[in-house]
């Protein structure tokens, strides 16, 4: 296939920005030019690559070409910086899309990204650590913090460490709902806080105490800091990472010996990219300092 760089950039921009109009602004061309370039790319590929919806969505074939487009963009940016003046403020930063789970983003990842920020524009996708690999597979991100040890096809994997979670509650809540500590009966009745409907951590803990599914009252709080604050306010109990506990915190564990360690891994595309390698190194260093 004869794939042109400007056509690949148009595809990347359209899917990243969601509309041809927004893609045109990013590329400093007209929406008609974006449409023509994508049509020419589809003609070269011999198949439809995008669904003309709002937002624009890639087809299965489009995902394959999108991965190529983003790999070329990353390597092209690295090469341009290597050939040019690294201190020239007009150099366009390399865009690095990364999938990160909410608790890591809230606690230790941002400091790492800050140390590797020179020449990089981050696009962070917040996703549960058990689901971030899907964003790697479909080309949405170049790297991900994930709980999956098996490498995604075309990716390398590095163990970062583990985040320890404990079942925590406000003291009054614990006395009311867990007078005898964590038991199957208490878990069946006590309100629980969940991050979202992908959050399985609380259920993993409860399965240690009961063999049957529970349908207890539950709150969904899709914010890492809001999740912990809801527990502090006594709305329910939930699994709180040790990294989010404050020295003056009033929260108490339901059981001093009960916890879940969630292993975390860094997966990234197998590309010889100095920029991506620099980001990976700073992530690994921060993880070594923060995680188990």
UniProtKB/TrEMBL annotation:
It comes from the Bacteria. Transmembrane segments: none annotated. The keyword ATP-binding does not apply. Residues 1-59 form the HTH lysR-type domain. GO terms for molecular function: DNA binding; DNA-binding transcription factor activity. Keywords: Activator, DNA-binding, Transcription, Transcription regulation. Pfam families: HTH_1 (PF00126), LysR_substrate (PF03466). PROSITE patterns: HTH_LYSR. The keyword Transcription regulation applies. Belongs to the LysR transcriptional regulatory family. This is LysR family transcriptional regulator ArgP. It comes from Nocardia huaxiensis. The lineage of its organism: Bacteria, Bacillati, Actinomycetota, Actinomycetes, Mycobacteriales.
């Amino acid at each position: 296939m004869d794939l042109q760089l400007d056509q690949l950039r148009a595809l990347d921009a359209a899917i990243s920005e969601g509309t041809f109009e927004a893609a045109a602004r990013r590329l400093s061309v007209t929406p008609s030019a974006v449409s023509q370039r994508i049509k020419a790319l589809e003609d070269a590929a011999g198949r439809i690559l995008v669904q003309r919806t709002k937002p624009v969505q890639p087809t299965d074939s489009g995902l394959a070409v999108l991965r190529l487009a983003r790999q070329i963009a990353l390597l092209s940016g690295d090469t341009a910086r290597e050939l040019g003046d690294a201190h020239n403020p007009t150099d366009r930063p390399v865009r690095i899309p990364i999938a990160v789970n909410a608790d890591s983003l809230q606690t230790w990842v941002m400091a790492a990204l800050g140390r590797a920020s020179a020449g990089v524009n981050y696009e962070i996708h917040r996703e549960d650590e058990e689901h971030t690999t899907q964003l790697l597979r479909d080309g949405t991100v170049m790297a991900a913090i994930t709980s999956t040890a098996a490498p995604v096809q075309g990716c390398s994997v590095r163990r970062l460490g583990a985040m320890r979670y404990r079942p925590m509650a406000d003291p009054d809540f614990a006395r009311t709902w867990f007078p005898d500590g964590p038991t199957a009966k208490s878990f069946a009745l006590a309100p629980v806080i969940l991050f979202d409907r992908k959050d399985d951590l609380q259920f993993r803990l409860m399965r240690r105490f009961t063999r049957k599914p529970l349908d207890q009252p539950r709150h969904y709080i899709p914010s890492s800091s809001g999740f912990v604050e809801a527990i502090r306010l006594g709305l329910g109990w939930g699994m709180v990472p040790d990294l989010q506990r404050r020295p003056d915190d009033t929260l108490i564990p339901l059981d001093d010996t009960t916890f879940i360690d969630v292993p975390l891994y860094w997966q990234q595309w197998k590309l010889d990219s100095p920029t991506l390698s620099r980001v990976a190194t700073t992530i690994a260093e921060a993880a070594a300092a923060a995680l188990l």
